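Recall the central idea of this unit: under ordinary conditions, the amino acid sequence of a chain determines the structure it adopts. In this exercise we apply that idea directly, starting from the sequence alone.
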Amino acid sequence: MPSSLDELPAHVRLEAHTTARDKAVAASDISPGSIVLEVPSMVVLLLSSGKGRRCDFCLCTGASEIRLARCAGCASYWYCGLQCQTLHWGSHKKFCKRLASFMASAEFQCLEAHEQLDALLHTHLIAEISSNAPSDVRAKQLSTFMSLLPGPQHDCLPIACPMSVNVDVHQSLDVLFTRSGNNNFAIHSHLTAIAHGIFPLASRLFNHSCLPNAAARYVIRRGQSVQMEIVALREIKATEEICIPYVDPALIESRQQIFKLTYGFSCTCPSCNFISTLDSIPSSPASEVALSELDNTLQTFCFPSGDIDDRTLFVGLTLPDLPENLHHVLRESYLLRLTDAFSRSSHEGSYYVALDVGLTVLAVYLLIYPENYPQIGMHLLEMAKTAWNAVIATEHDNAQDALAKTSLLKRARVYRNLASNVLEVFGPEGDPTGPLEELAILKKLLHEEP
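Accordingly, the structure predicted from this sequence is:
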């Protein structure tokens, strides 16, 4: 049977790997921002938070001129219009009338939230495979999907909504289930998860790294199936392996457990190797005074001049360079505390507090994320917006306020420019309006200020 592997782009090839099944390597140099691979979705499942706000087929949001229509059969799925509903009907009809009773059943209700998501994703997968819609693309996707390695074995297989399937599909349920749990991706718009999806060729090609040189972005267009694009985050030299992140690299304490339980491997990237050399990650200080001192020490280590400027290069900082007295910052709770404080203070109008906390967040990001990782760019954009809001809030009736405004404007421009450098590499993704449009608006506003 033909496979998606038969149509690899010219700049990507498969080679043998010492521990994994294969590895995808660059056949020629790939520049930052280049699309390494484009692949259509095989199955997508909208998260419950998007129900009624996004189309269950193309994932686009409703708009003033587009009112989402609810499926009359199940009352649980929404569509942009007849086109999306028709394109989805081939698989959706397999479980449409039974979905409500399945989701209300005690068997489904007793599941954890992530298990319910798995059950619905498996329902979509079975329905898609058994829809029998003629498609060369679907046949290649199925062949590639069935060639994927199964995940770790668990005590019981996930459940799925009852539906009529042919004998071949029924006999393959175990094979499908053991491959879907470890071969699905979180689909995001502007780095916020909105759905899960199966993209067999991406799963087949790319191994994981916590310091990846590429990342996935998603193309969402009304009336079309979701597309994944793998984008180079930095220059990838010929013969270099192309890796993507399977989980957020910021999950320093829990990621190895996720790898073992979900994927059945242990990560040996430089970041994980360093963490494995530590006897343990020390707990964060209990007192606010000690935490503040830790924050200041981290800022001084990462930004000796006290801030960043347009000449700041976000490369060279690595975890092995981190002195022992700063190992506390590797706790996941430390970063969570900082991001919560940044979000809260920036929304409450405590802009100077937010900018100080935001610089500490940036320091952590530069230690754990690789060059041009999109989360770095998004955070810099939020810092630029916070600095701009501080400019607007500054009073102008004395010399001190004028100096404060000048300083804030400089910081806003620096943060915006650095954010642009990162986000323009990652490129547009998700919903039509997003970070790149915000950068353009902010550039215009800052240009108009003296």
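The two ends are 65 Å apart (CA to CA).
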